[in-house]
Structure formats: structure tokens, C-alpha cells
Amino acid sequence: MSLASDTLVIGKIGAPYGVKGWVKVTSYTHDLEGVFAYTPWLLGQVQEGNEYVVDQWRTHNKGLVAKLIGVETRDDAESIKNLEISIKAELLPELDDSDVYWRELVGMQVVTDKGYNLGVIKELFETGANDVMLVKANLNDAFGQKERMVPYLFEQVIKQVDREARMVTVDWDPAF
């Protein structure tokens, strides 16, 4: 496995905040402050020597600011501006057998409960009503589809997620 696939992006460093090395932080986690639950942060390219630990953080207006160990001046803060914040995937909490991270679903085959192969999950996104899987159809799809949007509704549409086989079984009309 490559280093990139062993990590995931959880936020981004913003502009310097003040003169003592503080930076603005954009969080991509579900809870705004969730970005601070993981340590160390890997900033920029995934490589050795770019690990940072948050020394202090706080909310500021509707955003977040943080002081990282080793970032002591405004110039230091400027040098990490606009870098993505990644973490090692092993830092994520273990899930129950019935739960799955979206990152695990991407690349899985999607097959109907009647055996028709709909294609491969390209991405997932939230719509407000429910989460949706964007499935890239097979090249010679019998229904002429290039992509399908399949709701990620467990038990209603999603019948089984098999991590070992990398397959999601759905109750879905391939013509839709």
C-alpha cells in the first residue's frame, strides 16, 4: 500500500493568525472541532518529517485557530499556509462490523441482489435526505448507463457490504 492510501485529508491550514505562530484551520471533519481529535498531523506531501502536533487550539468567530509545536513565528506559520492536514488511517476508530468508512467503499463493485454488476463506486456524497453512491458503470453496460446514483440506505437499498470481496449488494433496478 502506498503512503497516500494509508492517509486521509481531514482539513487545511489557512492564513497565519497573529505573530506567535498561530494559524487558521479549516476542518473537514463532521464536527468542526473533530480535526483536533487526531494527532499527529501530516502537512503537505505525505512523507517523513512533516508531522506536527497541536499545542493549543480554540474557536475564533465561526472558525478555528491553532498553535502547532515548532511553529513559533508568523513566518513559520506562513510557510505551512494552504497545506492539507492529513492523518494516518490507523488513527481512525474501529467500527462495528455493520459500519464502514466511505473511503473503504470507493472502488468496491456494486452488484444487484439479482446478480447484475452495476459497476464500481467512484465517490460518495451527502444530499441532505440521504447519502448517495456515484457508481461508474461498466464499459458495456446493457442499459447504456455511464454512471448511476444509488442511495446509500442500509437495509432499504444496501443489502450487504462485503469488505473481503470488496462488493456491495443492492436492491436496485439497473435501468434506473
TrEMBL record:
<dbReference type="InterPro" id="IPR002676">
    <property type="entry name" value="RimM_N"/>
</dbReference>
<feature type="domain" description="Ribosome maturation factor RimM PRC barrel">
    <location>
        <begin position="102"/>
        <end position="172"/>
    </location>
</feature>
<dbReference type="InterPro" id="IPR009000">
    <property type="entry name" value="Transl_B-barrel_sf"/>
</dbReference>
<keyword id="KW-0690">Ribosome biogenesis</keyword>
<dbReference type="Pfam" id="PF01782">
    <property type="entry name" value="RimM"/>
</dbReference>
<dbReference type="InterPro" id="IPR056792">
    <property type="entry name" value="PRC_RimM"/>
</dbReference>
<keyword id="KW-0963">Cytoplasm</keyword>
<keyword id="KW-0143">Chaperone</keyword>
<dbReference type="Pfam" id="PF24986">
    <property type="entry name" value="PRC_RimM"/>
</dbReference>
<dbReference type="InterPro" id="IPR011961">
    <property type="entry name" value="RimM"/>
</dbReference>
<dbReference type="InterPro" id="IPR036976">
    <property type="entry name" value="RimM_N_sf"/>
</dbReference>
<comment type="similarity">
    <text>Belongs to the RimM family.</text>
</comment>
<comment type="subunit">
    <text>Binds ribosomal protein uS19.</text>
</comment>
<comment type="function">
    <text>An accessory protein needed during the final step in the assembly of 30S ribosomal subunit, possibly for assembly of the head region. Essential for efficient processing of 16S rRNA. May be needed both before and after RbfA during the maturation of 16S rRNA. It has affinity for free ribosomal 30S subunits but not for 70S ribosomes.</text>
</comment>
<keyword id="KW-0698">rRNA processing</keyword>
<feature type="domain" description="RimM N-terminal">
    <location>
        <begin position="9"/>
        <end position="89"/>
    </location>
</feature>
<dbReference type="InterPro" id="IPR011033">
    <property type="entry name" value="PRC_barrel-like_sf"/>
</dbReference>
<protein>
    <recommendedName>
        <fullName>Ribosome maturation factor RimM</fullName>
    </recommendedName>
</protein>
